[in-house]
Write a structure and sequence with these properties.
alpha/beta; six-stranded mixed sheet; 19 helices; about 20% strand; globular
């Protein structure tokens, strides 16, 4: 087929246009269906609806070569059934769940003609000022690598041509989450060691899982924009890792190489991206308009264009598009209503499993049988507010189909009177409604204080210098706390919200994230004691913006903090530690660990360690403990983080039950997460705990031999 193609037809295969949906940047190339009919388009994003997709596909199949289009959409955490945002799903520490929700989203989307999703986002994010922290798995590269494998497997299945699958796109390659000052689209300043050990491992895991596509980040590393970064795309990704899928630019990113200051014009920009290994130009028109001139000027070789076209055609063949009938019917699968109830049940389960109990200092949960419940705050409104339950990047989810918390409470507590008062706006200052909210709370015997950030304050282009509670929510909280009523704080958001005083003063506090279509039902069940808040924090929760970035995997200092020595690494006005550490959550004091043993005490580089620990449930009800296994290299050059996560296990225990848990750990797990040849011989500490707070860990040492 390649030999039959004109240059315009080849460049069309490398061109992605938008035919619907809200733009996420300037539309530099306002292409239309006429361009599809002319054979000048190879893929389309943001077009939804079976009839509209079928019309566009018919036009493509009617061109001279009849090459079908790939239809793509940001199916990030659901298509019609909306699951918790990725950071909320990551809190479940449950790869099987991550895979299952991706499968459900893929089935819904492929049924309606979508072939490719721009997910999973695998950016390591250690600064909650960055709005896109909501779209990824948090701060840890080991966890992100497991998330990558589960999501790729869930979206893609065993055969991309099969019904119910989507081609996955791992994004944003790479270090986008390291944006300076947490400001979206800003440069990243990362060392070569951090790049290799922190930011690249999730993408390597996605490649090993067979991901169909990779999307470079908007940002640059040390002055080289990722869309033009030949060393990382053509070099690390394609040559070193053997990735043979397609690389798709982000929105207008090729055209923006001019604004980056690395290209003088569109022809130079197109040449830089193509030579770096970018196959598909998203909406900038740089390839269609710039590559002919770049060829004439000798900036690119025809073979580079041919190689990119072959990769695009290979993806279409892998998707089964050359055998498919016009339109999406061949990949349809069962009717949308077949398992709608099952998908909603899955969404509720995911919401429960990702909700994090930050604390329950007053022992309020479960809440018993309250006679009157006051739902106070802008994120607990009886009417509206569905967009703040399903969150950003919610596919085709309908906000009005996500029941409110008062609605869910009426279903679960039919004997109780449910009052609802917003009190304040969730965005802007204003205290006129506080008096009414206080009156409602005073009349209740349980208050649910629903605070947070709006959905459009989280996500792309939603960086926040002070990621706390917008408007006068803190004033509302103060007025409610002054009543002395039993108060459960329920936080909605896509990042840790820095509001330590409000969180601490509540009798109990839950982080519900943007929990998806069924978050209200899940919260009602958690409050009633029908389900546990199963989440654990996949990020450290700071006390102040002044601590940022804050994360558990710091490298050791020559002057580590010592409270008796002022000349050590510390703040004068705050503790070093976050308000809540990575892994925090669950019923306070429910679980205890003891009896750690790691055998053998010495192991070779190909051996296996057995990590055994006794887990006891001291709570009055069944629950799941989440056990974290960290390692610490006691000597290494370059040095290594003070903690590196290597295993997570969930174990269900009955009230009063004690269980000896054994976790196998290969000697290879002692290695850095980079592309190294193997772990360095020497002494290692194996640390086991319920979170990343080192003072609470059980510790054993092992010796790794040279083999």
């Amino acid at each position: 087929m390649l030999q039959q193609m004109t240059l315009a037809e080849k460049l069309g295969q490398l061109t992605m246009i938008s035919l619907g949906g809200p733009p996420t940047g300037p539309v530099a190339d306002p292409a239309t269906l006429a361009d599809v009919a002319a054979g000048h388009v190879g893929s389309v994003l943001n077009l939804v609806g079976r009839d509209r997709i079928a019309t566009a596909q018919t036009l493509a199949r009617s061109t001279r070569l009849g090459i079908p289009l790939v239809f793509s959409l940001d199916v990030v955490h659901g298509y019609r059934t909306i699951f918790p945002v990725p950071i909320g799903e990551a809190a479940a520490f449950d790869p099987a769940l991550w895979q299952e929700t991706a499968q459900a989203a893929a089935a819904e989307a492929r049924r309606e003609g979508i072939h490719l999703t721009f997910a999973p986002m695998l950016d390591i994010a250690r600064d909650p000022r960055w709005g896109r922290i909501v779209e990824g798995p948090g701060e840890d590269p080991w966890l992100a690598a497991r998330f990558a494998r589960a999501k790729v497997d869930g979206f893609q299945g065993a055969d991309l041509a099969a019904a119910g699958t989507l081609a996955a796109t791992a994004k944003h390659f790479v270090a986008y989450g390291a944006a300076i000052a947490g400001r979206d689209y800003a440069s990243a300043a990362v060392s070569a060691g951090s790049l290799a050990e922190v930011y690249l491992p999730p993408f390597r895991a996605a490649v090993e899982a067979g991901v169909a596509a990779i999307m470079p980040a908007f940002s640059d590393i040390d002055g080289i924009p990722m869309t033009a970064h030949a060393a990382l795309i053509a070099g690390r990704l394609r040559h070193d890792w053997g990735f043979d899928g397609v690389v798709i630019s982000d929105w207008d990113a090729i055209g923006q190489l001019v604004a980056h200051g690395v290209a003088a014009d569109l022809a130079e920009a197109a040449a830089l991206a193509l030579n770096a290994g970018v196959d598909i130009d998203m909406v900038s028109g740089a390839y269609r308009r710039g590559l002919p001139e770049a060829l004439d000027r000798g900036l690119v070789e025809p073979e580079a264009i041919d190689a990119a076209v072959l990769r695009v055609l290979a993806l279409k063949e892998r998707l089964g598009l050359f055998e498919a009938e016009a339109g999406p019917a061949a990949a349809a699968g069962p009717p949308a209503s077949t398992d709608a109830a099952g998908r909603r049940a899955l969404a509720r389960h995911a919401a429960e499993r990702g909700t994090v109990l930050l604390h329950d200092r007053s022992g309020l949960l479960p809440v018993g049988s309250p006679r009157k419940i006051a739902v106070i705050g802008p994120f607990g409104r009886d009417r509206g507010g569905g967009a703040d339950r399903i969150g950003p990047w919610a596919g085709l989810g309908e906000p009005d189909r996500a029941p409110s918390l008062p609605t869910a409470l009426r279903a679960r507590f039919p004997e109780a009177e449910i009052l609802s008062k917003a009190g304040v706006d969730g965005r802007r200052p204003g205290r006129r409604g506080i008096a009414g909210a206080v009156a409602a709370a005073r009349a209740a015997d349980l208050v649910l204080l629903c605070l947070g950030e709006p959905a459009d304050w989280s996500g792309e282009a939603a960086s926040r210098a002070e990621p706390g509670l917008p408007g006068d929510q803190a004033a509302l909280a103060e007025a409610i706390f002054a009543l002395g009523r039993p108060t459960v704080l329920i936080l909605t958001g896509g990042r840790p919200l820095i509001a330590p005083t409000v969180i601490d003063r509540a009798g109990a506090a839950l982080m519900a994230w943007f929990g998806g279509s069924e978050i209200a039902a899940g919260l009602a069940r958690i409050l009633a004691g029908d389900a546990a808040a199963g989440g654990r924090l996949p990020v450290s929760w700071p006390r102040s913006p002044g601590q940022l970035p804050v994360f558990f995997g710091e490298r050791p200092s020559g002057r580590p903090y010592d409270p008796d020595n002022p000349f050590t690494s510390h703040y004068l006005d705050l503790p070093n530690a976050p308000q809540f550490p990575f892994g925090h959550g669950g019923t306070p004091g429910a679980f205890a660990l003891s009896g750690l043993s790691v055998t053998p005490e010495a192991v070779g580089p190909t051996g296996t360690l057995s990590v055994a620990v006794i887990v006891a449930n001291a709570a009055a009800r069944a629950d799941e403990a989440v056990i974290f296994v960290f390692i610490q290299a006691l000597k290494a050059l370059p040095n290594r983080p003070v903690l590196e996560l290597r295993a997570v296990e969930r174990v269900a225990l009955a009230p009063g039950e004690t269980q000896r848990l054994t976790i196998p750990l290969s000697a290879a797990a002692l290695d850095r997460l980079d592309d190294g040849a193997g772990p360095e011989p020497g002494r290692y500490a194996v640390r086991v705990g319920l979170d990343a707070e080192r003072s609470r860990h059980l510790v054993a040492e092992v010796m790794l031999g040279a083999g």
